[in-house]
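Box 3.1. Reading complex inputs
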Amino acid sequence: MRRRLPSPRATLVIAAAALLALALLPARFTGWVGWFRGPFLAAVGPVSGPLRIVSKFLRPGERGPGRPVTDSEAELVRQRDDAERRANELAAQVLELNRLLSDFQRQPVALGSRVRMIEGSVLASQPGRGLVDVARGTTHGIGPGTVVVARGAAAGGQLVGIVTDRSAVSSVVHLITDRRVSPPLMIGVIGGEGVMTPEVLQQSPRVQLKPTGEGLLAADAVGVAEAARIAPGAVVRLLDDSWPVSAQMTLLGRVTAVEPTDNPLFRRVVVRPEVDVARVRSVILRIPADGAPGPGGTP
Amino acid sequence: MNWIVFILAAYGAFALEFGVRDALQLGHTAVAPHFVLVLLAFVGVWAPSTVVLWASLALGLGLDLFYAFPSASGGEEVVVVGPWALGCLAAGYTVLTMRPLMFRRGVMALGFLALCGSAVCAVVCVTLLTLRARFDASFTIDPAWSELGVRLANAVYTWALALALAVPLRAVKPVFGFPATGSGVFRAEGVRSGAYSKRG
């Protein structure tokens, strides 16, 4: 005798009731559903990845006309940018060592750690939520606090964000331009193009930037004297102990405006990332070689 | 309906949602169309009612998995399964309810049904998320009216996308294997429900 199966309508009602319960139960009871996200994104990735080329065509996110376009030229530029960043990081290390020596302090120097870099393509972007999904996960060594920079000729090592969640094959990156990013503040050192010496680095103005929510970073309370040394077009790099070691001296963007504020003693400095970080197609993930993200790296 | 074709179409719609949607955003706002909801409206126009509801649920589940929320602590993202799925279910039901009143072969019908379905989906989704956010502080969403405003704007944009996709979708309609319908709107509904056969 055949058992009578429930009708499709009845099954649908049961499914809807189950989903209603899942929708309203607190995260501690429904955390397991997040496991399915990684495989789902990985399954759609092979098609959505190439489609991002179309996206790029429709809405170019990268700025910087006149930059090289062939792969070999782009790779050379990337290597040069990375060498510049490394040199600037070493300058920051020298500065830190000088400070430590002068203060007779005995504490480990965090700067200058080795990082391992792997490339990853962006699977999906949710600019409204300040997130992008990258096709690299724990199987590739991605840990919490892994720093993500843009890849490409025009990107020039632009800091994109920080990994906040990861599955076996994909990771969620929180963009630096989103207000909810953690750490929420970024101390940027303002300088010119290329390599900076420790002396130049020491004298360079610094600003405490936070995301505006409109794809920009801004420092709202920069002293008038400090602001007078900041010119539109200047390059801004991250130098902030609250961020992971692998993020130090990565590019935050360029100063686009130094504006007056309601308080005559302060100016507002606006920084625009070199690329639209929500629309990068390919990124480089900077993983600390020792596995530890360093100060501030644990979200 | 041929489910294999539907799965392939859903795969394509999700790939477009993930890969292209952000390029269609209006400026720096979060307003952008939903390819998946256009597919939902398309299936909703032509497929049998139970099939429409199951297909809506499946598409909604996929959107739930994709649209994760930033956690309040800034740590791991929170996946909330249910709001999109139930929203899409409500959208599918809305399309089913409204389609007898439409001239389904018309380009405007798909756009209008996509608009109505997306709007209903937005209301259900925001309601559920707001309810949950009241007692679950693990994730963050924008204030309800702001979230609803963006989603309703998305619905209007989805209407425009549906208008643009109506002709290509009509061209691939035979591949989906939808049940044959008569020439008239009301006759089609009668055939589906079996009213004509009962009358002999």
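In summary: Chain A touches chain B through 59 residues (CB under 8 Å).
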